[in-house]
Amino acid sequence: MKRLITERRWKEHLLRRQNSQLARKNRSGSSAYITTSPRRKRRYEEFRVPSQFSIIKNPEEMNRFFQKLRLYSRVSGIKLDWQNVTFISPEAIAAFIATMESIKGIEVQGNLPYNQDARDTLLCSGFFEHVHNTVPLPTGRTGKILKRGSKRVEPRSALELIECGAKQAFGTMNRSHSTRAAYKTLIELMNNTHNHAAGKKPDTEKWWATSFGNSSRKIVCYSFVDTGVGIFRSVKMRSLQRIFKMIGITSNAEIMQEILNGRVESSTGLAYRGKGLPAIYKAACNGDIKSLYIVSNNMFADIDRSLFVGMTTSFEGTLYYWESEE
Amino acid sequence: MTIHLNIAKQFSETPGPRYCEEGEFSGEQFRNELLEPAFAKVRDSTNGKVIVDFDGTAGYATSFLEEAFGGLARIYEPSKVIKYIELVCTEEPGLVEEVGNYIKNARIKKFSR
Fold first, then answer.
1. Residue ranges of chain A with pLDDT lower than 50?
2. Nearest-CA distance from B1 to chain A in Å?
3. Is residue A191 located within the same domain as residue A306?
4. What is the ipTM of this complex?
5. Is B108 within 8 Å of A271 when comparing Cβ atoms?
6. Same domain, A162 and A253
7. Residue B69: closest CA among chain A residues belongs to which residue?
8. Rg of chain A's alpha carbons, rounded to an integer?
């Protein structure tokens, strides 16, 4: 038999139920109320940024920095101390932006480097578009680093990066072997990220590319980063590593040389696929692109010096850096 | 019958990836929209030729070229593609040989080290 209750008692019942639901939510920590509460202040973990903020010059320390950033950003905000930074390179900025974008809900605070060149590079890097600024920032003296990001292959973005970099470095954009090689490299890398970087995940990984025209050195610096699984943690590569071991190729640095020389089958298994990285390597060997560096997982490659080495730390994803002359 | 195809003017100055799903101006799109229809017209005529001009673009990824020309050779015979298609490139002369290799090797299934 149904019990009839008064309107006042029904309201009291609803209020009690809402209160207990709210208390339960707060206890489990899943409520947005907790994080947005004005009484609760977020704790900030302070980090000293490596004084050589460059992956190609200081890879091990940078990898450790990114690992710490990923780890602590889960539990606290990040306070970055840039004051003692003396050198910042464009590919480190690209990797930093890609890392920050890959960590959802990261909160970053920080200061600026004392060193004027490093300060200018940071101000022009586009880094501050990814953080909340409480005070107006001064403008840098160097040219702006143009950055683009997507999950697809974006031919127009590739051309935009080349044109912007060339205009900064040379004052004009003329198509040449160098610009065509840079274009080819960007498209190949976007393709690789689209097809391989996500690993087992159904979604595709996002890439970030930057170009920076250095007018004093008369070169354009390009960086390309994704924070995917990296070359050596892809599904196909794991099985290939076992086969390579049998023929005496044990390290990722050696496998990288095999890939660049076109001696590794594409992950699709099709003979006509997998020509992207060998083509980039050929462009570097021919001198169409200069100073090519590849960093992926625990492998570091400086192509100009034919240096392929293993690292004790790991880069989460893949990074390419190269330069183009006029 | 001769058909001239200028990729920069008739397709795009910024050729893109291999497949349409990967991004715009793909090799697959070029093959479907321009190359294959032109090839189909000339192969029915005597002394037919498609002249493909590569100049004027920002550059080419290997996957674009392979899918467009190697892809055509996987549909038709590589020898027929070589017979009816002429490649022209003054900006990057090595490109003609590269595309020729994609056509010749289009049907090789097994990877060899």
1. 28-40, 141
2. 31
3. yes
4. 0.92
5. yes
6. yes
7. A272
8. 24
